[in-house]
Design brief:
The protein has about 110 residues and is mainly alpha-helical. It has one domain. The chain contains three helices and two strands. Strand 1 and strand 2 form a beta hairpin.
């Protein structure tokens, strides 16, 4: 009759299996890929991939910022046509506008 493993031994074996799968398997696959295509090709391909990802993220960030600025300018133009005065538009664009929602002055709501 075989001896049963304790909870601590089960956890230890689980940690070993986890390390083999998470650390050992990727290292083995990278080693085999390096042997198959050559290490210079593998390393230069990895560097090119990382540079491409960095350039994509930078371009996406620039595009998002340009879109944000465009939306702000469109909102500013719409507010100028609605209110006419640049000082009122600057107050609206600079921070939260409080509007009285009831008869009492403390009954305000942030927009």
């Amino acid at each position: 009759m075989a001896r049963r493993l304790t909870k601590l031994e089960n956890q230890a074996w689980g940690a070993v299996v986890f390390l083999v799968i998470v650390v050992g398997l990727p290292l083995y696959l990278i080693s085999k890929a390096g042997d198959a295509v050559g290490w210079p090709v593998l390393i230069s391909g990895s560097v090119a991939l990382l540079v491409g990802i960095a350039l994509y993220r930078a371009a996406r960030a620039r595009a998002l910022e340009a879109g944000r600025i465009r939306r702000l300018e469109e909102r500013r133009a719409a507010l100028l046509t609605k209110y006419g005065g640049a000082d009122a538009v600057e107050k609206i664009m600079s921070g939260p506008v409080r509007r009285c929602t009831g008869a009492h002055p403390r009954m305000t709501q942030d927009f």
